[in-house]
Amino acid sequence: MKRTRAGWYEAARKAAALVPYLAAVAAVFIALAPVYWLLTISLKREVDQFAYPPQWIGFTATLEHYRDAFAGGSFAAYFENSVLLAAISTLAALAIGVPAAYGLARFEWPRQWDHRIGDWILSTRMLPPIVTIVPLFLMLRQARLLNSLTGLAIVYTGFNLPFVVWMMRGFFEEVPKEIEEAAMLDGESRAGALLRIVLPLVRPGLAATAVFCLVVAWNEFLFALILTQTEAAMTLPVGIASRVTQYEIKWGAMSAAGVVAMIPVLVFAAAAQKYLVRGLSLGAVKG
Amino acid sequence: MNRRRIPEGFPWVLPSLVVLLALSIYPLIYSVKLAAADRRNFTRLFTDRLFLTASIQTIWLTLSALSIEFLLGLALALLIDSLARGRMFFRTALLIPMLLPPVVAAVAWRLIYNPQFGVLNGTLRRLGFHTADLTWTSGESSALASVILVDVWEWTPFLFLLLSAGLQAIPPEPLEAARVDGAGAWRIFRDVTLPLLKPTIVLALLLRTMDLVRIFDQIFILTQGGPGTATETVSLYIYRTAFRFSNFGYAAAMSFVLLAATLLFSRGLLRAMRAR
Question: To the nearest whole percent, how much of chain B has pLDDT over 70?
Fold first, then answer.
């Protein structure tokens, strides 16, 4: 059957409608190919890792590098350090920061002190880490807290605190005041109303804030690099980095460690997806 | 309310203030003392060729990465926004690079860039290209561009995410009105979408700039500032000065230059956020 002119036109229009999808797929390919490549290196036998032509699929998969890195190697210890550090510093930042956020959101402050304090707290977050790291290094050395998880946990807590205050303040402001006032009329104390009435209401926001703190602590590199220089206190990123700068690099074990290091972040990000924009823009764009 | 009394909210805020004073403000003062201990720490700033090189390269890297990331991020945001189906999938997949630990992302790119057995040259060779001159991060003239490319890969998603959210927040009425008035797609974009998106654009650019001027992790893994000084940045130079050469005073002095640059941006940032 011969196509009419209108039929050709229709076909061309359909093909053109596909172009944006092709472009989007290409963008996704570029975004994910490096991650996929790291994954394949972690699964390939050493002979296949740098074979020519590059093998994207159909190689013999092995888990030996994961065994190397985690069962026999020191990455298991780094992993444990990273988990502990992320958990402790997040809990501490929440414990200190949530009351501050509540205080700024809920009370009457004379002469806009709530805004001034809020801005000041946020501005500490904008300090480039390299500016405070020299004094922090010397301070921790004096306190004998270098190369210890405690020292790093303290630094991370301070690092995440402004973020907690800023985010949680926004969430608290969205809860109508009347809800706690009613509870307090019923005999709840201020702290009781916060714990039993308000916090459950902002639970999604609290969870998102916690996830952001966890990810920041988990990914952080510069402070960890400088403040922990012994094997025993190294975090996962520092452990991986210390292998890259060695003379002979074991790419398999390192890629395996890298893959393991990115899994929790991806899981967390999926959990907090709704709040990604808000967290990453410090709440300035409500997501 | 009695103004002389301590505000009721103050005890709630106090612990945070104490922690931040101890971990941000005290270190800053400490830093001033370190730098001021020797006046040469400041005079040296003006004669140090390496500091000049690092500063210029930091500015160059910031400006080029920022403009590429902005244009790509905006294009992607518009592209994904125009799709009828699968927006959620594309949005999620495109975000992944920026969520990874920067160290892991940089390791992946070392595997890709390696001139002899990296997958990039391997693939290009397979496609018939001549790859002997493509040295990426290990070539003096191509190293900085290669580092910028990694940053573009990693952080375009950030611009994309914020601009996407900004686009979604634009109310449909002005767009409709422009369409009814017979405006073409380009006119609508330039005269309606872009002005409404401006606050988001300003915020995204400021946030990104503040991160770019302090860039460290990726470069530390990819090139350590080399080859030679081809990818040396201010953060990296401060790091080396303090922790390789133990010259804490000079490192502190340099860090104040970086701080001044950041303060400039963060003031703009706070103002942009207040304006919303």
Answer: 97
